[in-house]
Amino acid sequence: MTDPDAIADTLAPEVQTMLVGHQTVRSALRAQLAAGRLPGAVLLHGPQGIGKATLAFTLARDILTATGDEDAHRVDEQVAAGAHPNLAVLRRRPRDGKGFYTVIRVEDVRELRNELHMTRGRAGHRVAIVDPIDDCNPNAANALLKTLEEPPPETTFLLVSHRPGQLLPTIHSRCHSLALRALGDADVSAVLTAQRADAGGDEIARAVGLARGRPRRGFEALALSPESVLGGLQTWLRAPLQHPSASHLALADAIGADRDGPDLSFARELLNDWLAEEARAAAISGERMRLASAGELWEKADALFAETDALNLDMRQTLVTIFDAIRKHVQTTSSPATQQ
Fold first, then answer.
1. How far apart are CA 34 and CA 11, in angstroms?
2. Angle at Cα 46 formed by Cα 43 and Cα 50, nearest 5°?
3. Which end of the chain has a smaller Cβ tally under 10 Å, C or N?
4. Alpha helices, DSSP H only, in the chain?
5. CA 315 → CA 54, 136, 188, 191, 225, distances in Å?
């Protein structure tokens, strides 16, 4: 099994036997398994990078062990090696040359369907993991729906989704849907420390701060240079009006210099997180003007990033425009005391 989204020097979900967090979901499904009421399809959805695929493979091992004739250790070995005959995994496939296809194709789903209808190679249930289902193109999604509507006997589908709102409603209706949340900082720290024993405490703490509950982001943060400008962006976002008016110009230049670099990817997530939190805070406080302004700001930033990506525009100028809009939003919606 090859993961197109694998991070170098990090255990893939099928190899990872330590599940941190999500224990309530695991316990509930194990109880259904023990009672013989396991759903035919389970949709595991939530923010990207919080361990949904790791949970899916953990649940697969639970099912294969409980219904098969081999002990947990032997099942773990086979799952990690991609060699368990009752486990099928659907991801974006490698190209003949280099890299991976950008989507899960209809022929990939048909191959999965044919595999699931063959005589099983081992006693017990079959499990099919789709990681993530968001990668299915429209034809593949429709083909997968047909399989969910007429599933093979004693087969459980575990569907991983980062964007469940974009899935076909009919796929939703065929699944037992489970929403997963981001992990707490202590859990993220435990995941990072377990696989990065060489990282110092300050490095782990910095990565946890950037991860915001997503271990995957934490691993990516550990690969960033300690001199990354992201710390400066975090400081600026805490109080945009308390910094010199031109300070964000230097931030935009540094962050936007390499549009394919990790700093920009993190910066965009930090900005999206800030915008989402601002809208949430405005909604909770009942400040209509602030909420309307936050909504406009979100739409503007989203449109600017989309246009910049599509037309290959200057990312630094896009960031300057968004930073200016954030300053204006804060200036017009916060009290004078907050601005000081």
1. 29
2. 115
3. C
4. 23-34, 52-67, 72-81, 106-116, 138-149, 169-173, 185-195, 201-211, 215-222, 230-238, 247-256, 262-285, 288-311, 315-333, 336-339
5. 34, 29, 31, 33, 21
Tell me if 322 sits within 8 A of 313, measured CB to CB.
Answer: no
Q: Is the pTM of this model over 0.85?
A: no
Q: pLDDT, tens digit, for every residue of 4-40?
A: 888 888 899 999 998 999 999 999 999 999 999 999 9
CA–CA distance, 33 with 25 (Å, rounded to integer): 12
Strand partners, 129: 89, 158
Give CA–CA dist 107/127, Å, rounded: 19
The whole-angstrom distance between residue 34's C-alpha and the CA centroid of its chain comes to: 29
Alpha-carbon dihedral 56, 62, 64, 67, rounded to 10 degrees: -140
Q: At what angle do helices 247-256 and 230-238 cross, to 10 degrees?
A: 140
Kindly report, residue by residue over 183-220, the tens digit of the pLDDT. Answer: 999 999 999 999 998 888 989 998 998 898 999 989 98
User: 94 CB contacts (<8 Å, ≥6 apart)?
Assistant: 2, 4, 100, 101
d(CA 203, CA 207): 6
